[in-house]
Amino acid sequence: MATKFANSIDEQGKFCVRGDPEYVRAACESSLKRLNVDCVDLYYQHRVDTNVPIEITVGAMKELVQEGKVKYLGLSEASASDIRRAHAVPSITAVQMEWSLWARDLEEDIIPTCRELGIGIVSYSPLGRGFFAGFKPHQASEGDFRKMHERFSGENLEKNEKLRQRVMEIAEKKKCSSNQLALAWVHHKGKDVVPIPGTTKRKNLDSNIDALQVTLTEEEISELEAAVPASDVAGERYNAGYMHATWRYAQSPPLSSWKQS
Fold it and tell me: What's the CA gap between 61 and 55, in Å, rounded?
């Protein structure tokens, strides 16, 4: 069982990220109560607080481990430098990052850092927010943020459809579905990688599980990556209002900046 903390709404009703010790503890206590458990297996910092040194945040998380309320600690959307700093306080067990055929910028620095430190990698949105499973914006239900997502809108969608078609063509040759092929690509990235595709339908769950049976050669992996080059992906991973909270832009301040109130 895993849960997260950090994303919050301030007094003005605006999105904010909190990593202060008081909030870390309060969020955990609330989660335990809602889940009706005494302990969670994995507790993530969902986003990095740019006002609180990560050592302070993870130090508060460590106290929860010592109290038996949490077993293991994780980070999400953290830069390589912040991962190193956090891992030096207690051991970080897992880092959750967006990793898929159209989100591969973390491979340059973050993945090598995790492997150097022995940290597991949890791939969220491994199907490109459903894109490589065939999702189209007109299918979205009310409130689905993908209706307004850059990669699913206007000219960006038209350009990205060409990428999907390339993947579908390769999937057809492999005699599997495009979602299975996209998941198989993530699976083949290493035994330390755990993709977590979301689904609301049993048939899609079964299809995703069957992706474990799809094997890829090095040549096929290269073919897939060439079919979806980063330069051809139109639109950012998140819209402008949320990109600031991702690992490229949200850096933890130095520990020396922390003033205990």
Answer: 10
Q: Other CB atoms closer than 10 Å to residue 105's CB: what's the count?
A: 15
Residue 212 CA neighbour count, 13 Å, CB half: 10
Phi first, then psi, for residue 64 (nearest 5°) are -65, -35
Each residue's pLDDT, cut to its tens digit, for the chain (261 residues) gives 999 999 888 777 788 899 999 999 999 999 999 999 999 999 999 999 999 999 999 999 999 999 999 999 999 999 999 999 999 998 999 999 999 999 999 999 999 999 999 999 999 999 999 999 988 887 778 778 787 889 999 999 999 999 999 999 999 999 999 999 999 999 999 999 999 998 888 999 999 999 999 999 999 999 999 999 999 999 999 988 788 889 999 999 999 999 875
CA 23 from centroid of its chain's CA atoms = 22
Which residue segments constitute the domains of the chain, with CATH numbers given? 128-189+200-254 (3.20.20.100)
CB 152 within 8 A of CB 179: no
Give all strands of the β-sheet with 70-76 in edge-to-edge order.
2-5, 40-45, 70-76, 94-98, 120-124, 193-196
Asked whether the beta carbons of 189 and 99 are under 8 A apart, the reply is: yes
